[in-house]
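tl;dr need the bound structure. longer version: we got a ligand (adenosine-5'-diphosphate) that a collaborator sent over and nobodys looked at where it sits. i said id run it. heres the input, straight from their email, havent touched it
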Amino acid sequence: ENFAVGYGGMVELENVVGGESRILVFVRVRPVSKKEKEIGSRCCVKITNRRDVYLSEFANENDYLRLNRIRGRHFTFDASFTDSATQQEVYLTTTSELVEAVLQGRNGSVFCYGATGAGKTYTMLGTLENPGVMVLAIKDLFGKIRQRSCDGSHVVHLSYLEVYNETVRDLLSPGRPLVLREDKQGIVAAGLTQYRAYSTDEVMFCSVLVMALLQQGNQNRTTEPTRANETSSRSHAILQVVVEYRVRDSSMNVVNRVGKLSLIDLAGSERALATDQRTLRSIEGANINRSLLALSSCINALVEGKKHIPYRNSKLTQLLKDSLGGTCNTVMIANISPSILSFSETQNTIHWADRAKEIRLKVSDANEDLLPLPEIENDQAKLILELEKENR
Ligand code: ADP
Ligand code: MG
């Protein structure tokens, strides 16, 4: 097997170039919330070692014996994080190798799946004190670029968008919905705002500024109160980081390499219709289910090794087309609550994650073409200045 996961889930991706890999699946349990504590609800999840999750509806032996139910189930993932795992730990285990791969001209994607309140946004965005995967990935990416080149040969493009109600919107510059179209790089959202930064930039991306940018983007996410949960997020947020650079190939031609990292904070996976039956909610719910259902269909098709993967069934899967199969390294983080109050949602999430483990991916060599990059102008599109402008 050309795939290896070491103790603690440190993932080695170097040796899968050009070979076959599978989606990496992680589970993260968030701490018990204040509300759950107040109710005194017990836990239904136990991380038994660094990889195994034990899920049981019943607190004590007698209950499941009396009710003639199954005792509980063990699931194994590439790594499982307890409620005390740090953001840094989660980033290093799940995503840092993808950042490395993107710098070699490959695509990678990380997506958080789980019910509303399970910790997806905390994992992806985090807080100023505890920045999440998106922020740590960008910081790490820039650190690595700086180590590698100081000649301006790397250009990084950053965009942040959402899919809400089967509509694609720009989170960095809210306005009219964006139209998806296909070009030679795959599916692109026409007119999407792109922040650019060069490896010669004096001031590199710093966590605080990236955080400010993304937090502001998150405020543009469409969230509406529902009866069940006021912070229910019905939108999928996608951060795309594209790295372009020039290298010489074996015959000394200058080639342009492009690597793309997509970091996705999916909408809540709970059944939307259970929370509110009224029309608008139902329509939204149907569309959210459409995107998540389409994602499930794609995953099933990939699992079964089907030739046709139904990416076209939703906006989300169109956008994720190059992030789920093909030339991509894919990571899924399943977020769950530890509380029995969320048992059925946790069970759904864990089953979904367990299924996703079966996906096999063909990881191809680096994306490159012989077209030279446009000449780089160093005074162009300074990210930091734009950020400062945005924050004024
Ligand atoms: P989701 O995006 O899945 O709806 P959130 O990320 O907003 O859920 O998490 C719900 C609440 O739990 C938030 O207040 C968040 O700060 C908190 N939370 C989630 N995961 C963690 C964690 N690992 N450590 C500390 N707090 C967390
Ligand atoms: Mg959220």
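gonna send this back to them w/ a short note. The chain is about 30% helix and 25% strand.
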